[in-house]
Amino acid sequence: MPRMDVAWTKDQLSDTFKKFDKNGDNKLSREELQEAFKYLKSRWPYYRVRGALNQADDNDDGFIDLKNQELEKLVNFAKNCGYKVA
């Protein structure tokens, strides 16, 4: 039977990113984002982090805030990258 890859839902992506907030500060650092993109099987996690911060870091503090619209923008960025659940 052929393997079927399915696109991540926004809820799944949101939950996944939240799990990578290792220090519990409700923000994702560059390092935490890079680990999350590696988990999503990104071939270029460093570049994905740069793109994600460019798209979602509204206040330019170098973090993605998990308690406001920055998380939603991050999820939309990742969704547009086309990651699949294998």
Protein model, in words:
This protein has helices at 10-19, 30-39, 45-56, 69-81; strands spanning 6-7, 27-28, 64-65, 84-85. With 86 residues, the protein is mainly alpha-helical. A two-stranded antiparallel ribbon has the order 1-4. Strands 2-3 form a two-stranded antiparallel sheet. The protein is globular and about 35 Å long. The mean pLDDT is 93.
Topology:
Layout: E1 6-7, H1 10-19, E2 27-28, H2 30-39, H3 45-56, E3 64-65, H4 69-81, E4 84-85
Antiparallel strand pairs: 1-4, 2-3
Using brief descriptors, characterize the structure shown.
86 residues, mainly alpha, two-stranded antiparallel ribbon, 4 helices, 9% strand, globular
User: How much of the polypeptide forms β-strand, as a percent range?
Assistant: 5-15%
User: Order of strands across the widest beta sheet?
Assistant: 1-4
Biggest β-sheet: count, sense, barrel?
2 strands, antiparallel
Number of helices: 4
Number of DSSP-assigned strands: 4
**Low-confidence runs (pLDDT<50, min 5 residues)?**
none
Structural class: mainly alpha
| N-to-C series of helices and strands | EHEHHEHE
Report helical residue fraction.
Answer: 40-55%
Average pLDDT, rounded to a whole number, is 93
* Gyration radius over CA: 13 Å
Termini separation: 14 Å
Shape: globular
